[in-house]
Design brief:
By secondary structure, this protein is mostly helical. It has five helices and no strands.
Amino acid sequence: MQLIYWSSTVLVSIALLLSSISYIFHQATIDGVRDLGFPDSFRIQLAVLKLIAVVILLVPTVPHQIKEWAYVGAVLFYITAIVAHWAHKDPFYFNLINLFFIGLLVVSNIYLHKL
């Protein structure tokens, strides 16, 4: 059970971390977020919140109730991305990737409560 929990949690955390770094440093991502209609302040806010979620998800001593909020926030990140990409008429595989990470979050959350 621990292997499933940590595997899913680490994969999601890596995705959130890379996304956060990309939001701050990668010009193509910065331009892409703007193209989706979001202001720079929202991009920075998402980057910071994703970093906070990574820390909360990966630190074992964080209380489960706090982790629940990180799960909810991360799912909201992915839902927002799905809606934005859908409205922007981006290729469907963008949404499949986001749905995959929502699925990993669900698995991680389920196995968190089984530990």
